[in-house]
Every structure is written in structure tokens, then in C-alpha cells.
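Entry 14. Structure prediction run on the chain below.
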Amino acid sequence: MGLNNSEVASVVCVASWNADLVSHIPRPLGRGETLMASAFSISPGGKGSNAAVAAARQGARVALIARIGADDFGRMGLALWQAEGIDSRFVEQAVGESSGVAQILVYEDGDNSIAVCSGAGAGLSAQHADAARSALLACRVVMASCEVPLAATERAFQMAREAGALTLLNPAPARPLPDSLIALTDLLTPNESEVRLLAGMTADAPVQDAAQALLARGAAAVLVTLGAEGCVLYRAGQAPVSLSGRRMAVADTIGAGDTFTGALAAALARGEALTDAMVCANAAAALSVTGKGAIGGMPDLPKVRALLAQSPA
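Output returned:
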């Protein structure tokens, strides 16, 4: 069940939603090449929705701001959010529009490639954030990704700042960001390639230089995820804080970054310090790769705490 009207969300997600159409093939495709897939599935996806599910499983009370199609894939999303206890009162169902889809190719080594079509989500706007003002002013963390229109995120972040909530932006898929949005962001969570692109640097530029460039543009903190190698936190005037990755048996890596984002938001909403929240997010992301699909391996909070008790990072 979703939140009751009397309950206040601790995390609000400006969310993308799509159905994941997943094919398993031996290796990446060459241009013009066809390979036979060993398996196919349709499952819930979208970076925003995935992160919201991850946050809910980590104990956060979560509300969504989103736009979906009034179609079977949209109904899949509504059913998922109800099952995960996520408030979908601020989700618009657009009649006559299709929900987003992601075509995902998963390789034998667990890595993947993804092509996303936003569908109805492309129509998410600042007005949708305005309609959720009550939730945005009452929450502790507002999170978003670059799968949604930046105007919606920027308006939501403005209201979050009014209320003193933390703003968390996972800038994926990477695109140039306006300084106005970066300055409203308390925590950016790019990966290695994204941080360089956001900083306008070459692919071989040092990650630290790219992170420092984003701090100079107004981000309060930059937490760079390094996949299996862990993550590094950069803050102005402070030494970087590094956290090693965890070696896990990989089923696939779909949703690992979204799990990191959602678990991080949930920990921050609980009032944990950023460095402690990093530890929780790092463990949650590690657990997530042991299951299949974007949400199949997403752990709940007891599983994360059990892993940390076995081998604290």
C-alpha cells in the first residue's frame, strides 16, 4: 500500500519510469550484427523509479513525481509502487501517450548496454513539481536523475532548498547541466565517465580534477561511483574520502547505480552523516548485482546491515 494522506514522505523522487525490455546475449553487438538471445524478459525500470524502490526498501517513506502513459506499462508502474509502499498521488497518467521503455542488452559477463525512450515522461514539467509542493516542503531529501526534464528537477530542488531538504542528483544519462541546477544540488553522484562529461573534460582527465570543477560551479559535494571499485567523495576544502568496493557474485549490474542512489537518499533521510550514508549505499549496490533485473536484487535494510556486520567497509 502507498502512504496514507496523513503520512509525510521523507524522500521525494522526481522520477522517470519505463518498462525494461531485457535480452541476454553473449557479447556487445557490432554495427549491423544480429545475435540470438538466450533469454528475454519485461520488468520494471527507469532510474527514478528504481531509486525510489531502493529507498523504500531501505526504510524511507517515498513519494514520486512522475508522468506515465495510461497503458499496460504505466499500470505496471502503479502496481509496483503500491506493492513497495510508495506514494503515487503526484504521478500523472497521460491518456493517449505511451509509457517509457528501455531496451537492455545484458552480456555474459554481467555488463549491459541500454537505450531509453522516455515516452510520457518527456512531458514532466515544473508544473508537476508545483503540484507536489506540499510533499517537497515536508520531506528531508529530494532526488532526481537526468532521465527527466531538467526544468522539473530544478523547480523541485528550488522548493527543497526553501524547506531545508537535501537535494541529490544522479546525473545519468550524462548531459550538460546549467550552473543554476548544479548550484541547487547538495550531492551529485556521477560515475567516472559522467563526471568528466559534466566538467567538459576529456575521457582521460583525472576524476579528481573533474569533481573539483563541479564543486567550483556550485555543487556542495560530488560522490563519484566507481562500480566494483567503490566510490570517492569530494567536498570543497576537504580531503577526498574513498570507499573500496565489495567483490560479489554478479548476476547482472542493471540498477546497481540506482540502488546506490536510493539507499544513499534513505540513509540521509534517516539523518546519517554523508560518509556513513556512503557505506550503506555502497553495500546496497553490491548486494543488488547478485539478483537479476533492475529491482530483482535490491536489498532491504536488514540485508544491508547484515552485510555490514559481517564485513564493515
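The first strand starts at residue 11 and ends at 14.
Filed with the rest of this week's runs.
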